[in-house]
Amino acid sequence: MASNPKIIVIGGGLAGLSAVIKIAEMGGHVDLFSIVPVKRSHSVCAQGGINAAKNLKGEGDSTWQHFDDTVYGGDFLANQPPVKAMCDAAPGIIDLLDRMGVPFNRTPEGLLDFRRFGGTLFNRTAFAGATTGQQLLYALDEQVRRYESEGKVRKFEHWEFLSAVLDSNRVCRGICAMDLRSMEVRTFPAEAIIIATGGNGAIFGRSTNSVVCTGSAQSALYQQGCYYANGEFIQVHPTCIPGEDKLRLMSESARGEGGRVWVPKIPGDKRDPLSIPPDERWYFLEEWYPKYGNLVPRDIATRAIHKVVYEHNLGIDGKPMVYLDLTHIDRKILDRKLEGILEIYEKFVGDDPRDTPMKIFPGMHYTMGGLWVDFTQATNVPGIYAAGECEYQYHGANRLGANSLVSCIYGGFVAGPTALNYACNLKAAPGNGYFDIERKRQEENNATLMKSDGTENPFKLWRELGDLMTKNCTVIRYNKNLQETDAELCKLLERFRHINLSDRTLWANTSVVFARQLYNMLQLGRVIAQGAAMRDESRGAHYKPDFPERDDKNWLKTTKATFAPDADEPKFEFEPVDVSLIPPRPRRYDAVK
Amino acid sequence: MAEKKSVLLKIKRQPNPNVRPYWEEFELPWHPGMNVISSLMEIAANPVTREGKTTTPITYDSNCLEEVCGSCAMLINGRARMACSALVDKLEQPIRLEPFSKFPVVRDLAVDRSVLFENLKAVKAWVPIDGSYDLGSGPRMTMEEQEAAYPLSRCISCCCCMEACPQFNEDTGFVGAATISQVRLFNTHPTGAALKRERLAALMGDGGIQECGYAQNCVEVCPKDIPLTRSIAEVGGDVMKQAIGDLFRK
Ligand SMILES: Cc1cc2nc3c(=O)[nH]c(=O)nc-3n(C[C@H](O)[C@H](O)[C@H](O)COP(=O)(O)OP(=O)(O)OC[C@H]3O[C@@H](n4cnc5c(N)ncnc54)[C@H](O)[C@@H]3O)c2cc1C
Ligand code: SF4
Ligand code: SF4
Ligand code: FES
C-alpha cells in the first residue's frame, strides 16, 4: 500500500488541470506532463461558453432538461448515468469557476449571464466574452500554479508522453516520456496515471484543433491494450475559414444575420466573386431547403457543402470551399452585430468580409470517440484513467455546443479522486525490470527513425493522411471509400517505414517527434475508418447515404476497438448502451432547428 | 498583390544554445492567405534553402494558430509579434524571422519564456479560494467590474511586452509589464484582494515596478491590446502608498 501516492497527469487542458486540483487538494502528489506549457493548451481556443442548467432566466430549466438535451443531441449513443451525473454537477462547477475569478459576463444585477446555444431551447450557456475556454483554463492554471508553489505539483512542460509502463500483470506502474529539448527518454514511476490529452484533429490534416491535438497518446495506449471507443464519431463544423495551416471557426451567427452560402456554377471559375452575375451563382442551400434556406441545422449544412464540393466538383478556384456572403448586408448592421467574428476573418485572411464574400468550408472540429472508460473514468488497464476530449463518455454520436468544457472539468474531477483512491490501495509491483524494458523499446523506436534513410518526408505523408481522412471519413461515408481508406492507410504505414528525417540532431528535433506522432495517427486512422465501415446506419455525426436511418436494433452499441499486435490492426467488439434513464426516441433532423 | 509569385524568408538559425547563430534564406511559392507559421510548415515539408541546400526543418513554438495560446511569439522584421497572425501579404520581404533576443534560445526560433510563469508565482497571481468543493456562488460583480477585468485577463503570456521593453534585461531583473498587469487583475478581484499586500510587496525593490521608465513600448506590441501603461500606473500608485505606509509603521 502506497502511503504517499504519486499520480501522473498527462495533459494540462481543462480536464488535466481539474484532475490535478482535486488530487492536490486531497493531499496527493502530482507530476503533470504536457507538450506545451499547460497555459497554452488547446482548451484556450473555446469561444462560445460552458453549459449548466442554473435556471437564472426564469425559464424553468433543470439539470434533467440539460441531461435530456445532451442524450438526445448525442442520438442516444452515450451511456446515460454518467451524463446525468455531469449535468447535475454542472451548476456547482460554474459556481466554483466563478469563485476562482473567471470573468463571466454579468447581468445588470451582477449575476452570471447565460446565452442560448445549439440543441436546446434554454439560455444555459455561461460565457466570458468571446474567449470562454481561455478564461476557464487560466483560472484552473492559476490554482495549479498555487499548488505548484506549495510543492504539491511538479510540472514537466515540453515533455511528451510516449507510453505507459506496464508490469508483468499488465498493471500500469508509470510512464515513459521524452524531453522535447534534450530528447532524453525517461521513465517515471507512479501509482496511477490520468490521460487528458485532448482530441485528434491532426489525423484529418487541418482542423479547428490546435497543433498538438494529434491523438498520439491515445493511440499509443490503444496499441498497448486500452480499448478505444466510438472512434468513428467525428464532429464536423459547417463553417470554418480554410487556412493554409488550420481551419478557424466562423460562428453560425453570420448566417443568422442573413449570410448566404453559394458557389460559382462554373467549375474552376477564376473571376472575382462580386463580378459573377447572380444567375451564375448556385445558392444550393436555398435551392435544396427552401424552407430553412441558409439556416438549416448544422449537420445538414455540412453535408450539403460537402456534396457540392466533392460530388458536383464545384468550389472556389478549384479549391474545396464555398462562399459565405455578407456583402449584401448594410455595413452598419454588420459592425453592430458581428464585429467580433468579422475581425477574426480580417485578421487571418486579410480580406474584409463586408467587401468580399468569405470563403468557408466544413472542418473537423471535435472527437466524440476516445479511450474507453467506465463510470469512474478508469480505462480497462488497471491504473490508467482518462478524462476530457481524449475519452468517449459524455457526447454519444454528436456533441452539443458548450458541453465539452463542462465534460472536461467534470471528468477531471471524477478521475482525480478515483485515481488517488486506487493508488492508495495498490499492491506492490512484481519487480521493476519493465521500466528499463519500456525505456529501451522507446529509445529503439527513436534510433530506428533516426537511422532510416528512405525518401518519405513525414510532413508530406501527414498531408496525404489528412486529405484521405477528410475526404472519406468525415461528413458523408460510403463503405467502398472507407474500405479503400483503410487500404490506403496500410500503404501509408508501409511508406512510413521508408521515412527520411531531414533532421538527425539530438536537440529539440521536431522531426523525430512529429514522425512518432504520425505513426500513431496512422494507427488510429485505421480505427476510425474501420469503425465507420462497420457501422451500417446513420447516427449523429456518422452519416451513410446507403444506410440513412438510425438502427437501434443492431447499432445501439458502443464500438470498442482493441489492437491486435500480431495482426497489427484493430479488432472490434460492441457493447450495449446504458439507456436506463431515457428511452431512445427518434431524433428529428428536419424539425425545429 | 496577386502578381507576387514567391515568398522570401530570411531565418536566423541556431541548432542549440552553445553554437553561433547563422542565417538561411528560403524561397516558397506564394499562396493566398499564407502566414508565417504556414510558411514554416511548408519548409518542414521541403527543407531546402534558396540556394538548393538541404537543411533541417525550423524549430519554433506554436499550438492554437489563432493568436490565443501565446506560443508563437518571435521577432518578425524586427518586431515582437505572433507568427500565426502575421500574414505574409502584409509583410515586407524578405521576411526576417529571429528568436526573441532577451530570452534564452532553445533552438532556432524557440526560446525559453518560463521566467514569466515564475514571475506569476512570485506575485501569487491567483484567487485564494478555500477549496474546490461546492461552496455556493462567487461574489457578485457589476457589469462594469467584469468589463474592467476581462481585458486584463486576456493576457496570453506571449512575452512580447517584455521583449520590447527597454528596461527588461539582466541588469535590472525587471519583472515586466505582463506580471504587473496581472497584479492589477487579482488585486481588484474581491477575493483576490486578500493577497494584495503580498503582491505589492513582491513588486517593491530591485526588479520591481520602479524599474519601469514608462517608455510604452509594451503597450504598442501587445497583441491583445491590454492597457499595460494604465496597469503600471495604478499598481505603481498602490506600491508607493503601501511603501509609505510601511515606513510609518516601522
Ligand atoms: C475552435 C474551438 C472552439 C470550441 N468551443 C467550445 C465551446 O465554446 N464550448 C465547449 O464546451 N467546447 C468547445 N470546444 C471544445 C473544447 O475546447 C475541447 O473539447 C476541450 O478544450 C478539450 O480539453 P481537454 O482538457 O480534453 O484537452 P486540451 O485542452 O486539448 O489539452 C490537451 C493537453 O494534453 C497535452 N498533451 C497532448 N498529448 C500529449 C502527450 N503525448 N504528452 C504530453 N502531453 C500531451 C497538451 O499539451 C495539452 O496540455 C471548442 C473547440 C474548438 C477547436
Ligand atoms: S512602460 Fe516601458 S519600461 Fe515600462 S514596462 Fe512598458 S516598455 Fe517597459
Ligand atoms: S501583456 Fe500583452 S504582450 Fe504582454 S504577455 Fe500579455 S498578451 Fe503578451
Ligand atoms: S500559435 Fe497560439 S498564439 Fe500563435
Number of helices of chain A: 15
Determine the oligomeric state from the structure. heterodimer
**List of distinct ligands in this structure:** flavin-adenine dinucleotide, iron/sulfur cluster, FE2/S2 (inorganic) cluster
**Poorly predicted segments of chain B:** none
CATH level 1 class label of the largest domain in chain A:
Alpha Beta
Detailed description of the structure:
The complex is a heterodimer of chains A (593) and B (250). Chain A is α+β, with helices and mostly antiparallel strands and 593 residues long. Helices cover 36% and strands 18% of the residues of chain A. Chain A is built from 15 helices and 21 strands. Chain A has a 6-stranded antiparallel β-sheet with strand order 13-12-17-16-14-15. In chain B, 47% of the residues are buried. In chain B, helix 5 packs across helix 8. The longest helix of chain B is centred in the C-terminal third of the chain and has 22 residues. Chain B contains 8 helices and 7 strands; from the N terminus they run ββαβββββααααααα. Chain B is elongated and about 70 Å long. Chain B is α+β, with helices and mostly antiparallel strands and 250 residues long. The N and C termini of chain B lie far apart (67 Å). In chain B, strand 3 and strand 4 form a beta hairpin. The complex binds flavin-adenine dinucleotide, iron/sulfur cluster (SF4) (2 copies) and FE2/S2 (inorganic) cluster (FES).
